[in-house]
Amino acid sequence: MSKNPTAAPTEQDLLDQERVRREKLARLLESGVNPYPPRVERTHSIAQALAQYQAGELSEDDGLALAGRLLSRRIMGKLSFGHIEDGTGKIQIMVRRDLLGTEKYNQFFKKLVDLGDIIGVTGTMTVTKTGETTLLVEDVVLLAKALKPMPDKWHGLKDPELRQRQRYLDLMVNPEVRARFRVRAQMLRAIRDYLDGQGFLEVETPILQPLYGGAAAEPFVTHHNYLHQDLYLRISFELYLKRLLVGGYDRVYEIGRDFRNEGISHKHNPEFTQLEFYEAYTDYNGVMARTEEMIAYVVERVTGGLKVTWQGHEIDFTPPWPRIPLRQAILDASGIDYDQYPDADSLRAVMREKGVDAPADASRGKLIDKLLSLFVEPNLIQPTFLVDYPIDVSPLAKRKPGTRDVVERFEGFVGGMELCNAFTELNDPIDQLERFLDQGRALESGDKEATPVDMDYINALSYGMPPAGGFGMGIDRFAMLLTDQENIREVILFPHLRPEKREGEGGEA
């Protein structure tokens, strides 16, 4: 073992501890103890036991059976104190040799039980001289022998990549991480409660799709062996949800996973959770109002108010949010009026004049998006809607009346990042087909994020889709805002990571 008690355990220390634990496992088996029994006696969760005792519903004569992970232990001769924890809370236990029995106390509890083991304890409640509610233990059983030691309690588990790669350890030793994912779950519950209360129907659409669409993204491709058919992991729910509007549902939503074959960053994970809803007989103005209302409802339900602290900023979600035309926002921030440059070459030239990297193969829409990402988005900390987008970047949105190349689309930004995207849905099958064909040509020219032609969707529109507004929001980014996290991987239980670098291997970790 490490000679310095304040130093982090070395790899050899951990190997030595694991060897000792395996030796204890062998001794348990030799003595006839099953270290992984199939059943457990448990009368209460720890939270239930504490609440009922403090409310006077349990007396010191009532027997209890609790279970949890042994987090700490102080052996004081004939008496030991410790703490066990289950998914609901933590409680102190007091183990006395005279109650447990000399042999079980000395040979089992002191020598064969380790920190990190899952144990069952039976006994009665009491309060110690220091005022701590405690279970006075009459019996201890082993429920699961831990063969590896918990992370060192002094040094903890701090390395972000290790925490995300071995999330089970992160959750085990960092209670604030467990609390973060409870907030995420509360957020999802509140979203569903709001939408259900507004008459929306929750539905499920295919994850494996013969054609992808609904967003500008490169898909993951897989293959169905029996059908001899390539399939795509969905990049959006949009085209399937709008088919349901054709079928007669007026308000539908889905919360689920999307998959986009793109880079990984503090705001992007290739597998992420999305909310999309579609509402008949409204437009992007109605969806903007609903967005403000829904998000305010969720924030207040989860946090108790409409203001949250995120990375040192106080963000106020109180409606209404500012509405700024995209063209004006980019002009004010960059000095470039993209309306004055009707094609990619002219816009590229003025961007390069201003020192902005403008790739030679980028479309006009991608160049406008780059201006937005560089000059505008990072500064939108308070909730803000940017409205009225060029048709170049919105192939599924309806034109704004009186314009040729502007569509009724908005994006919501908070914390310097895009949170949501929505528009008045295009329901003209002829116009939609023309835009699909434009996208198809871009796809053939090498644009991997262009949308293929979906003739079945055109067929659906040909039966008549009511006027509608649609909405999409990244759940993970919303969770970042409500839990004060700057990196999306901190709000995804099992984020995608690069392969671990093995000893002797080159390349990136």
Write the layout of secondary structure elements.
Blueprint: H1 11-30, H2 46-54, E1 64-76, E2 79-86, E3 89-96, H3 97-100, H4 102-109, E4 118-127, E5 133-144, H5 160-165, H6 167-173, H7 175-197, E6 201-202, E7 208-209, E8 221-224, E9 229-233, H8 238-247, E10 251-259, E11 271-280, H9 284-303, E12 307-310, E13 313-316, E14 323-325, H10 326-334, H11 344-353, H12 364-376, E15 384-390, E16 406-414, E17 417-424, H13 429-444, H14 455-462, E18 468-474, H15 475-483
Parallel strand pairs: 3-5, 6-10, 14-15
Antiparallel strand pairs: 1-2, 1-4, 2-3, 4-5, 7-9, 8-9, 10-11, 11-18, 12-13, 15-16, 16-17, 17-18
Task: Explain what the structure shows.
This protein has 509 residues and is α+β, with helices and mostly antiparallel strands. The protein folds into 2 domains: 11-150, OB fold (Dihydrolipoamide Acetyltransferase, E2P), CATH 2.40.50.140; 172-322 and 382-491, 2-Layer Sandwich (BirA Bifunctional Protein, domain 2). 34% of the residues lie in helices and 25% in strands. It contains 15 helices and 18 strands. It has helices spanning 11-30, 46-54, 97-100, 102-109, 160-165, 167-173, 175-197, 238-247, 284-303, 326-334, 344-353, 364-376, 429-444, 455-462, 475-483; strands at residues 64-76, 79-86, 89-96, 118-127, 133-144, 201-202, 208-209, 221-224, 229-233, 251-259, 271-280, 307-310, 313-316, 323-325, 384-390, 406-414, 417-424, 468-474. It has an 8-stranded mixed sheet with strand order 6-10-11-18-17-16-15-14, with helices on both faces. Strand 12 (307-310) and strand 13 (313-316) form a beta hairpin. Helix 6 (167-173) packs across helix 7 and helix 7 packs across helix 15 (475-483). The longest helix has 23 residues, at 175-197. The protein is elongated.
